Batch of 2 targets.
Target 1
Amino acid sequence: MSTSFTDKQKLDNDVNEVAPLESVNPQSAGGIGSWFLRDMWYFALPSSALKKGKMVPKTMLNEPILLGRDQAGKAFAMRDICPHQAVPLSDGVFDGKEIMCCFHGWRFDTSGTCTAIPSLVDEQEFPVCKVKTKSYPVREVHGTIWVYFGDESESLLPVPEAPGLGESLYEHTTNNLSVPIHIDYAALALIDPAHVPYVHKSWWWRSAKALKAKQKHYVPSANGWTMVKHQPAKHSIIFKLFGQFIETEISFCLPGCRREYITFCGRTILSGISTLTPIDDTHTELNHTTYWMLPGTSFVTPVIRYFVNEFLGQDVDIAKKQATRLSYKPKLIPTIKDAGTPGAWYLLLKKEWHDSRKEKRSFANPVPDSILRWRS
Ligand code: FES
Ligand SMILES: [Fe+2]
């Protein structure tokens, strides 16, 4: 069925109510799918993937990054390009203190500062310590490693930790998936309730039964929002088994972190954080770290990994289909109310974060206290 002009105009008006139309047009400068947020922490690796004295190369936000862990156990990150002749430093040798480039043997400490140029003879003066490759701030929190991209002259944001952990003892594991689309599209999918009944069909989660009307309360929080604590939908076998004493709280914050924790009789039993890290313009990494508060039960890790991979793998399958058409740069409608409203908020938050940094003013969260309704 074709869309009449009037319908089209109404559609544009509906879209405009929640986000300026140009912000959803991939062809416009600064539009969806074309840039990355700066002045943000991005998930890099689970701590377990970076052993003492080892280096791991990785592309993040289109930049080659070398992640490493020194002899003392401290994680670091630097630009993975030797400033001499551009060989990857990660192809060199790391002794736990310094990295030796594999081309001419220049040595660099973990802050990226050159400490030795072996070809120099005694009387050849050269300010070796002025040779540097950029280093990046790194934080390690709850078994995850984060790298900061942006202006380091101002105080840095806190890392978006998984919520509800406090002093709890817990087990954890991180699932890593590769999504072949720009972070904006991956973020829209991460917070979109309308795809759930169509994409996430598993015997243990939900069947494709009739859609149910939902109503959720959202409040602004930090640089995102929180869907206030509520009892989870009873469609899944897992929640049916656990009964009525369960509550869940879900929040989202920039640059692409969906955080959820589940309480049983008021005590956190499960917490999870899904994070999106741009690799380049058309690839994003999705890392999901699950924490569960039953120390000594690491034997269930393979089961948790199986369920998370199954669930998020369904999102990756859709993203692969999307990628085949996004390359044509079609104009999109991610802001249909109310299921698309979180997507519209994501675009507004991203724009406001960028504008507030550029204009050197404080960030004003554009998310209103809202009740959203949809069928899923
Ligand atoms: S390229 Fe690294 S030492 Fe020359
Ligand atoms: Fe999904």
Target 2
Amino acid sequence: MADRYLRFTATAPGRALTRRLGLPQPAALRRWTVEHPSLTGSLVHLTAGESTLALAPVLARTGLPMGDATAADSPAAVVLDASGVRDVGSLAAVHAALHPVVRSVAASGRIVVLGAPLDAGDHHQAAAQQALEGFVRSLGKEIGRGRTVNLVRLTDAEAAWSTLDFLLSPKSAYVSGQVIEVGARSDDGPPETGDRPLAGRTALVTGGARGIGEAVAETLARDGATVVVLDVPQAEADARRVAERLGGQALTLDITAADAGERIAAELPDGLDVLIHNAGITRDRRLANMPAERWSSVLDVNLASVLRTTDALLAKGTLRRGGRIVATASIAGLAGNAGQTNYGASKAGIAGLVRALAPRAAAEHGVTVNAVAPGFIETRMTAAVPLFIREAGRRMNSLAQGGLPVDVAETTAWLAHPASGAVNGQVVRVCGQSLLGA
Ligand SMILES: NC(=O)c1ccc[n+]([C@@H]2O[C@H](COP(=O)([O-])OP(=O)(O)OC[C@H]3O[C@@H](n4cnc5c(N)ncnc54)[C@H](O)[C@@H]3O)[C@@H](O)[C@H]2O)c1
């Protein structure tokens, strides 16, 4: 499971040899730790076009000292507000703003470009704003040194503070090349800025006994949630171990049971705030060799049970107002993968579910619905992949390495945050900007 190549390239001879051979140069990523919760260095705020966003107070909340683009130091983060770019001519201001600073951004630093929603009535504005997407994705692929580049489309800076806080922190180490849309402010109450934003809230994680689900449970508990670790009866010992460590509760049931939603509701008479659909399985075979059972078991665990339990918990009112649903897609599902017609169908279905349900769940229940789409994540599942395919999976992304379960967990925690009410209907890849799909 250990990425020996990453360790080798971190040594001086390893770096010299791999550079001479033209091999990938992954940089050790800086992730969140209790000791180092923020990026180190300044934040440079640039503007292209005429912006109406009130960004200053939101950027101040990141705690990063404001820097100067002309100073000689290496900024940890650059925010370019391009929300006012309305035509192709003013895209020159994007180049003019970033060209002088891009080289100096620190290793594991962040570039966040802010855009506006595309205006269907103004094709010049739409062209210029869509251009930002190609710009961000291209810069993400060339910038290197563990640096990430993302685009946030927004109309209200305050509604986007939890998103900017996440993207401008070490928590988003493996999120790059993404386009995230943030809507209007929701009425979730005052924004939560403490380091336990989920205190007093209950979160249920399906498939929480190990792998990515275990990391999600840990991270939500770190953020103050009381976690319920749900897994199959065969994984009861692991589910209990995780729940006890986190001061939560284990719940053993098969999520494909017809009455799974009712049983969860019965276990949680006081309600639920955060529902994480993480349980998932693969049963790979090419379609020509795939028996119906392999097809249906994957569709049932990964998609049908997600629909059934979501419907049941919304209908029963178990999910409280201000609640959050985060489902788990996969880049293999979005881009397609040989041998995974069943898995790809199930994970693409998650994206359809999220986009269609999000506006209705918000309007009728005050609940947001989003998905994470992991790329190559270092887990037991990917450790079992044959060596050469595993190496290809690890290197074929802009950061030239696999992600860790905690990267998916941090992204989930941002989507579950009480201040993320304006983030709805998004499918966010946690894939180091994988070459699979966009
Ligand atoms: N590891 C990756 O690289 C990767 C990439 C993309 C997507 N994903 C997705 O992330 C999620 C977690 O993946 P992982 O690598 O941690 O997998 P994993 O196999 O390590 O863990 C999955 C957990 O789900 C549980 N589970 C399976 N079927 C269940 C059921 N019917 N009811 C209740 N629990 C059930 C398992 O017991 C297990 O504890 C899955 O949805 C997977 O498809 C993983």
